[in-house]
């Protein structure tokens, strides 16, 4: 066993020029059993020096050192052999203080909710606290002391060993460990290397079970990815703008609706330019209402093409209840709106034509209710056109029941065949009418005119 000068002096050896060879397991100074050391990896010892037993190690020409209360230290196994660290035992007062201090730090160690451990570079646990045993689901600390932390993640432990040989300390290391029961946990650890002659001999670590936070973080990340994907793939134009209309965020559909070929270009645009009158109006409404649904507006894209949009808008307010942003969802409704306007225009033209002719014309739905009455028909029937709308033909004019008019009207409705017939006036006698009935899937239309003399 080799020893430095300080160790020789502590052990009372006064022949430093020619120090004796000391067998670690057979000497009167350091009590050590090889079986115990091999089994535990490290042992602590205390011993009272007996100078009569170590006289062979002293120089007879020198005065032996004063008798101390003893020596104490630790012995641990390292790759090159054994490491012995010794120091003089404290006085009674010092020992008492040390005992109190040691008890305090022992309590810190035992009560710490962080898993504290000391292990060999190979991962064998030399010391650990109850929290360490709990984190890795050992039934007790004694079982944890029989474990090897490298087995929880062999590749990661090997990497940590390599890092500690150069870095000395590792902070906030995150990794996944598989406990002995097979369950995987996420841990965050701080590690410190313990060295002897620049060789890593032990690893001191502090482990925190971070599984719940990590799972919540990953769930949040998955959720963010999901909603970001929905945002990007949504056919509705989604955007966030400030109250002045500057675009802060938008999806590809928004850029496409307003004629931009990239989102990046759309983000440099101001949506108020699409309709300088509507945007201030919407902002004013949002300040008082908070949200607007189904707002319809004609707007112009960045290339000045006219589009019709339907938008849902939500105001975003700060703590002072001031509107700071507008979140919107825009749908390009141009095709439907153009078709609607075309249909309305056609209906207006038809209504104008039917209203201008000097013959009677009415339309009935499949339930025999009036849905259109032109001015000439209203005059003939001697009733206001608006008063007839929605009324039932047979209830409003029961005198038509059993007449030739009913026969042809019902035949047109039921058999979907056009009917032409001549008959006396429907409600007035004396004048003969020329009547045409046109069926459709929605009902029937009845057209009549006075029979002319040239037709007689």
What is this entry, summarized?
By secondary structure, the chain is of the alpha+beta class.
Per-chain topology:
Blueprint: H1 5-10, H2 34-40, E1 42-47, E2 71-78, E3 81-88, H3 92-111, E4 115-119, E5 125-128, H4 130-135, H5 141-144, H6 154-167, E6 169-178, E7 184-196, E8 199-209, H7 211-233, E9 237-242, E10 247-250, H8 252-257, H9 263-266, H10 278-289, E11 291-300, E12 306-317, E13 323-332, H11 334-356, E14 360-365, E15 370-373, H12 375-381, H13 385-388, H14 393-396, H15 404-415, E16 419-424, E17 432-440, E18 443-450
Antiparallel strand pairs: 1-2, 2-3, 4-5, 4-8, 6-7, 7-8, 9-10, 9-13, 11-12, 12-13, 14-15, 14-18, 16-17, 17-18
Give an account of the 3D structure.
- Its EC number is 2.7.13.3.
- This is histidine kinase.
- It comes from Methanobacterium subterraneum.
- Keywords: Kinase, Phosphoprotein, Transferase.
- Helices cover 33% and strands 31% of the residues.
- The chain has 456 residues and is an alpha+beta fold.
- The chain has 4 domains: 5-89, no CATH class; 112-213, 2-Layer Sandwich (Beta-Lactamase), CATH 3.30.450.20; 234-337, Beta-Lactamase, CATH 3.30.450; 357-455, 2-Layer Sandwich (Beta-Lactamase), CATH 3.30.450.
- The protein contains 15 helices and 18 strands.
- A hairpin with a 5-residue loop joins strand 12 (306-317) and strand 13.
- The longest helix has 23 residues, at 211-233.
- The protein has helices at residues 5-10, 34-40, 92-111, 130-135, 141-144, 154-167, 211-233, 252-257, 263-266, 278-289, 334-356, 375-381, 385-388, 393-396, 404-415, and strands at residues 42-47, 71-78, 81-88, 115-119, 125-128, 169-178, 184-196, 199-209, 237-242, 247-250, 291-300, 306-317, 323-332, 360-365, 370-373, 419-424, 432-440, 443-450.
- The radius of gyration is 49 Å and the shape is rod-shaped.
